[in-house]
Every structure is written in C-alpha cells, then in structure tokens.
C-alpha cells in the first residue's frame, strides 16, 4: 500500500505561483505512473497532469498546458506540480494519485481517467484570488 501526502497549497493572487508536493511512503514509487487531479467547489474531480515512472513522459489537461508542470524526484519519492500564472478558476483541492502497475499500462493519455489509479492523497487546498 502506498500513502500519499500533498502539501504546498495556500492562498495566492492571480498571476502568482505555487509548487505542490506529493510525498509517498510505504513503497517506492520509482516504477509507478503518478497523476494530479483537482476538485473545485460544486464540481466533479478533474484531471490535471500525469507523469510516467521515469519522468520521461508527461500529459496535461488542455486547461493547464503552458502554466502547470508536473515533475518527479524518485530519489525523494516525491512528485511535484509547479503552478505558474495562476487563475481564479484554478481554485480547487488538488489531489495526487498513484497507479501501482509497474512501469504503467497503456499510453499516458489513459492516465486522465481516475480508474487508472489505486491510491489517493487527502488533498491540499489552492485558492487563487482575483
């Protein structure tokens, strides 16, 4: 079992930046695909970004391309989400998730679906003021 803990959320003005971290424990994640999702008030949870086990491939929702960047440090068992040029519509609880199938399964585009993931963190709140 993999435990995930997100951190780095907070309140920021529009145009600002934040870096979210997702620290894993219980098992090394260096063979696993990871993803970030978010849920805004009154809306369903939606995909944000995914990264392959090596970090060599990434995939983003159209709404965040060019502004958010997913990365990972397998030595630290941690995945990151760098968030730049934040907008009020980015306000949400951000969750990280892990697919524990070694080296992933299928194309990275498939990782936009929640069903690909086995374990989830509790989330971290990001609030962007206008």
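-> sequence recovered:
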């Amino acid at each position: 079992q993999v435990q995930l803990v997100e951190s780095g959320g907070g309140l920021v003005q529009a145009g600002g930046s934040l870096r979210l971290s997702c620290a894993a424990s219980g098992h090394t994640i260096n063979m696993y695909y990871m993803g970030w999702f978010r849920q805004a008030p009154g809306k369903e949870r939606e995909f944000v970004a995914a990264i392959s086990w090596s970090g060599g491939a990434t995939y983003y929702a159209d709404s965040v391309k060019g502004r958010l960047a997913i990365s990972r440090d397998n030595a630290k068992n941690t995945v990151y989400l760098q968030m730049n040029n934040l907008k009020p519509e980015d306000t949400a609880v951000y969750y990280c998730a892990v697919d524990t199938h070694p080296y992933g399964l299928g194309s990275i585009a498939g990782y936009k679906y929640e069903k690909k993931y086995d374990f989830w963190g509790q989330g971290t709140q990001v609030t962007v003021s206008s």
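The radius of gyration is 14 Å.
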